[in-house]
């Protein structure tokens, strides 16, 4: 059996270990400047699901301590739109639960999504960890939104979640597979999707 990629063999999102944790308020404080950003190019999907030449760039950061992990995503985007007061999907990070772990916990699905929802004015409403198909969800600590052409979203969760459907970051020596999706602004506006990447933990 091939060994899982580790910190020394994977180029991807590196979660830096810190002693001062970020404040989840939608403003990137000083601790985020110490974390190496993963610069992603997301490509728009066509009407048949194929990726087109239209792209969007994002920076994703992660930090952790011995108990929790925190993420920050930032990208340039146009003014929010949509029906007044309507909450919709804005950003999702799709995490792959290892098949052996999913089987051990008897999960029907081995993909969990960390999804941020925003309103028509670009204000973050809430963020969830949820499975597809639906098996359970849990609210994540999150903040952020759109301001002056920039989307900034922060969220965090314990390394070991109480939600049995969520990914468990129990082995900090291995890597964790994910990809990112930005949702289109309403019907007829395809989503932007990244390539697959790995999260690894720095000691």
Radius of gyration: 17 Å
**N-C termini distance:** 26 Å
Q: What's the architecture in CATH terms?
A: Sandwich
Order of helices and strands: EEEEEHEEEEEEE
CATH class: Mainly Beta
Helix-and-strand structural type: mainly beta
According to DSSP, the number of beta strands is: 12
How many discrete structural domains? 1
Description of the molecule:
The chain is mostly beta strands and 203 residues long. The chain has a single domain, classed as Sandwich (Immunoglobulin-like), CATH 2.60.40. 3% of the residues lie in helices and 47% in strands. The protein is built from one helix and twelve strands; from the N terminus they run βββββαβββββββ. The protein has one helix spanning 99-104; strands at residues 13-17, 38-45, 51-64, 68-76, 88-96, 111-118, 124-131, 137-147, 150-158, 176-182, 192-193, 197-201. Strands 1, 2, 3, 4, 5, 6, 7, 8, 9, 10, 11 and 12 form a twelve-stranded mixed beta sheet that branches. The radius of gyration is 17 Å and the shape is globular. The two termini are 26 Å apart. Residues 5-9 have low confidence and may be disordered.
Task: Give the key terms.
single chain, 203 residues, mainly beta, Immunoglobulin-like, 3% helix, 47% strand
List the helices and strands and how they pair.
Elements lengths: L12 E5 L20 E8 L5 E14 L3 E9 L11 E9 L2 H6 L6 E8 L5 E8 L5 E11 L2 E9 L17 E7 L9 E2 L3 E5 L2
Parallel strand pairs: 1-3, 1-12
Antiparallel strand pairs: 2-3, 2-11, 3-4, 4-9, 5-6, 5-10, 6-7, 7-8, 8-9, 10-11, 10-12
């Amino acid at each position: 059996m091939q060994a899982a990629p580790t910190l020394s063999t994977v180029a991807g999102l590196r979660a830096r270990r810190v002693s001062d944790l970020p404040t989840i308020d939608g403003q990137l404080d000083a601790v985020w400047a110490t974390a190496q950003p993963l610069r992603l190019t997301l490509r728009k999907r066509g009407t048949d699901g194929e990726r087109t030449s239209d792209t969007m760039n994002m920076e994703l950061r992660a930090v952790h301590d011995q108990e929790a992990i925190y993420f920050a995503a930032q990208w340039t985007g146009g003014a929010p739109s949509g029906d007044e007061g309507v909450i919709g999907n804005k950003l999702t990070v799709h995490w792959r639960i290892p098949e052996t772990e999913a089987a051990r916990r008897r999960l029907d699905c081995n993909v969990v999504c960390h999804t941020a929802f925003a309103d028509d004015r670009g204000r973050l409403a809430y963020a969830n960890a949820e499975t597809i198909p639906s098996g359970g969800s849990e609210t994540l600590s999150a903040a952020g939104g759109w301001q002056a052409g920039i989307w900034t979203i922060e969220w965090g969760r314990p390394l070991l979640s109480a939600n049995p459907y969520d990914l468990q970051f129990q082995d900090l020596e291995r890597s964790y597979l994910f990809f990112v999706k930005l949702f289109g602004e309403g019907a007829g506006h395809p989503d932007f999707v990244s390539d697959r990447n790995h999260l690894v933990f720095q000691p």
